[in-house]
Amino acid sequence: MLILLSSLTFGVPVVSSAHEVTPTIGNFSVENSLLTIELRLNAEALIAGIDLDGLQNTDSSDSAKDYDDLRLLSGSELTPMLELALEDWIPAFQVLGSEPVRLELVNLNVAEVRGADLPRPTLVTITASLGASERFLKFHWPKGSGALVLRQNGVAEPYTGYLQGGETSPPIAVLGGAVQDPSEVFFDYIPIGFDHILPKGLDHILFVLGLFFLSLRLPALFWQITCFTLAHSVTLALGILGLVKVHPGIVEPLIAASIIFVAVENIFVRRLHSWRAAMIFGFGLLHGLGFATVLSEVGLPPNHLFPALFGFNVGVELGQLAVIAAAYATIGYWFGKHPKYRGRVAMPASLTIALIGGYWLVERLPDLPFSSGL
To answer: Is 1 exposed, middle or buried (0-12, 13-18, 19+ CB in 10 A)?
Structure first.
């Protein structure tokens, strides 16, 4: 059963935030026939030649060692290596108009980091001269480059889209007007939310599994997930709207602590108590702040803020339900009624979850904003 749990949680490798694959953020604008594209991307993955399509974290790649070595380099050391990698990559990143569009690299900004376990944002600025008659552009995102959040700036009705590696955007009006309607934005943000749970949200997956291993009764699971959903929906909305701001260095250790608490409770408590709903609601508020951090990095279209927020939240819920369904189909259905299920499955699984949460808590404590001098 422990092996089964480990496979369900993707082998339980403990990954740091610097190794998690996040979407590239691409902002573009056109002024006086000059197209300017600013990309916030993972420079180390590009230099190491890692295929990011469908990848959860870089530790899963055959080039993980090269990636980790690159993480230790200074910005000045990494910049010339990135310039060489971009010479091959930029031709694959195509902007398609009525006339050929030639992209040119004009600026690199590689940030410095304190260590290999901290994220390093890299900004790449690319420009292209457009014909005076150019009215529409299509963007082809290179295969192997992971996901791209593409956003248009400087027009009244901007385009916002989400592309996977190898996909091409629809025609985008240079002067604006290609804005998506609310339903299109809603459906575009569902996979972003789902992707943050499966496969990338291992901490959220373990929290949901902690709820699962205390009781297999579907009504009990339903009200626990409902409490969790209502709570993180509240703080997700408040965080995105800027009404609540909590430093991620505080939120992430607390999320790890919530995983430990739920898992340890499973070991010492045999049945659900009424106060568990309040506890789950409180922890859901924490997880919602974590979701808000992710979504704020991706960004929301200002003209359709609530459809995007709702779509992301629906994607998160679908991901959580998929975790519960997989756990029930793999474990609960086959072994849930066995008289030794608690002792041989639920308790060892909860202990494993608690140990992983404990490792994360220790790993994340140095990121607390008031511990930078430790």
So the answer is: middle
Peptide bond into 100 cis (omega under 30): no
Cβ atoms of 118 and 146 closer than 8 Å? no
DSSP state string for 292-342: HHHHHHH---GGGHHHHHHHHHHHHHHHHHHHHHHHIIIIIHHHTTSTTHI
Task: Please give the structure tokens belonging to residue 369.
Answer: 């904003």
* Distance (Å) of CA 67 to CA 43, 45, 117: 10, 6, 12
The two beta strands, 24-31 and 34-41, are: antiparallel
pTM beyond cutoff 0.85: no
Q: Tokens at residue 95, please? A: 């902007």
Query: Looking at residue 15, what is its pLDDT?
Result: 38
The segments of the chain whose pLDDT lies below 50 read 1-17, 372-374
Q: What's the residue count for the chain?
A: 374
pLDDT in tens, 62-80: 888 899 889 888 889 999 9
pLDDT of res. 59: 77
Task: Give 246: exposed, middle or buried? Use CB within 10 Å, 0-12, 13-18, 19+.
Answer: middle
Residue with tokens 């691409």: 26
What integer pLDDT is reported at residue 366 of this predicted model? 72
56/9 Cα distance (integer angstroms): 12
Please tell me the distance from the alpha carbon of residue 1 to that of residue 7, in angstroms, as a whole number: 10
Helix (H/G/I), strand (E/B), else coil: 345:
helix
Q: Return the SS3 of 25.
A: strand
Contact 134/98 with Cβ under 8 angstroms? yes
Distance CA 160, CA 173 (A): 12
Pairing relation of β-strands 104-110 and 122-129?
A: antiparallel
Rounded-to-integer distance, Cα 265 and Cα 145, Å:
42
Evaluate whether 145 touches 26 at the Cβ level (below 8 Å). Answer: no
CB-CB contact of 179 with 330 (8 Å):
no
> Computed over its alpha carbons, how large is the radius of gyration of the chain?
22
- For residues 143 and 97, give the distance between their C-alpha atoms in angstroms, rounded to a whole number: 20
Q: pLDDT tens digits for 218-259?
A: 788 888 888 898 899 999 999 888 888 888 888 889 999 999
